[in-house]
């Protein structure tokens, strides 16, 4: 199962629809041959599609994307 990690006060694009979310949830990591990895984020509404369940953010915000 995917670990759910909220990144408070950071804007990221949802990997599902490309919209910006204030409550990004890390749903995957992509690694390159160079060893440098990229984190993949989804909004709380789309995170379950990638095996994650949104939980309440650590900073106490809502759960809408």
Keywords, separated by commas or semicolons:
globular; 65 residues; mainly beta; disordered C terminus; two-stranded antiparallel sheet
Could you give the distance between the termini? 21 Å
Structural category is mainly beta
Largest sheet strand order = 1-2
| Beta-strand proportion | 25-35%
SSE run = EEEE
| Radius of gyration, in angstroms, nearest whole number | 12 Å
> What is the count of helical runs?
0
The whole-number mean of residue pLDDT values reads 76
Number of strands: 4
| Largest sheet, strands/sense/barrel | 2 strands, antiparallel
**Helix content percent band:** under 10%
Taken from the alpha-carbon principal axes, the silhouette is globular
pLDDT < 50 runs, ≥5 residues:
55-65
Topology, element by element:
Blueprint: E1 12-13, E2 20-21, E3 25-31, E4 37-42
Antiparallel strand pairs: 1-2, 3-4
Summarize the structure.
The protein contains no helices and four strands. It has strands at 12-13, 20-21, 25-31, 37-42.
Textual characterization of the structure:
This protein has 65 residues and is mainly β. Helix content is 0%, strand content 26%. It is built from no helices and 4 strands. The protein has strands at 12-13, 20-21, 25-31, 37-42. It has a two-stranded antiparallel ribbon with strand order 1-2. Strands 3-4 form a two-stranded antiparallel sheet. The chain is globular and about 30 Å long. 22% of the residues are buried.
